[in-house]
């Protein structure tokens, strides 16, 4: 094997070993699976184009993917200001980066609630917070990644922590109990059990949908256990009647489900926030642009029209 071929193979192996970490950094900064994957791919191209092997491959790759993500986020924030309706992160069914000793912490950091809270931060604050608080990078590495002094990075972290502490999401500590509650919720949903659903919802529960103007969605957030329970108990049996299925699944590290149309195409993804033995929030991602990485995407409008026909026939 030639030296160049050996070097190329070595770089590929080093990169692939770190790919899960790179994606997880980029996703937490961007809230987008597609944009995170693009940032990781561009990082690979820059790694292979580098004529000299970095002293620390991990530091080089992490810094590169962070800088790319910051640049993408700056332009994405302008688009999000014009977004139609609530903006939610693209649903992530499995985080490729795993650390058994910090699995619960990592799951909470990728939750919809945590990612929405990160939206309050500037791109630099967000990157520093993710690198330090989620992945425990040292300040010399962070400073290199964001091209700021260590002192500046410490100040950025202080500001980020202040914003995050004000609304830091809390989740059910006992993950077994949380998953059991979610299972009861989806059972009650399938049965159209209003009372069963209401008993599992917090009094001030909120339910909102992200369609981005490209799919039918709730006109506004639905608030309160009674309102949410009655709406769910009415709509899901009708959806089931036209062949829509619900498959419970972890969504962004929290209990959730993926709904599919009669042909098995992805209709939406639902994420639940659970605390104190009750569901606090229900977030539904319907925008087809945010579902393509999960598989073939359903025509949500066609499902909506079929549902309307069912309702007309029931009158």
UniProtKB/TrEMBL annotation:
Residue ranges of every copy of the RNA polymerase sigma-70 region domain listed in the record: 15-77
Keyword Transcription regulation included in the entry's annotation: yes
Keyword terms, alphabetized: Sigma factor, Transcription, Transcription regulation
Residue intervals of the RNA polymerase sigma factor 70 region 4 type domain: 113-164
InterPro entries, per the entry: ECF_Sigma-70_Domain (IPR052704), NTF2-like_dom_sf (IPR032710), RNA_pol_sigma-70_dom (IPR014284), RNA_pol_sigma-70_ECF (IPR014303), RNA_pol_sigma70_r2 (IPR007627), RNA_pol_sigma70_r4_t2 (IPR013249), RNA_pol_sigma_r2 (IPR013325), RNA_pol_sigma_r3/r4-like (IPR013324)
Subunit structure: Interacts transiently with the RNA polymerase catalytic core formed by RpoA, RpoB, RpoC and RpoZ (2 alpha, 1 beta, 1 beta' and 1 omega subunit) to form the RNA polymerase holoenzyme that can initiate transcription.
Family per similarity comment: Belongs to the sigma-70 factor family. ECF subfamily.
NCBIfam families: PRK09636.1 (NF007214), sigma70-ECF (TIGR02937), SigX4 (TIGR02957)
Protein name per its UniProtKB record: RNA polymerase sigma-70 factor
Organism taxonomic ancestry: Bacteria, Bacillati, Actinomycetota, Actinomycetes, Kitasatosporales
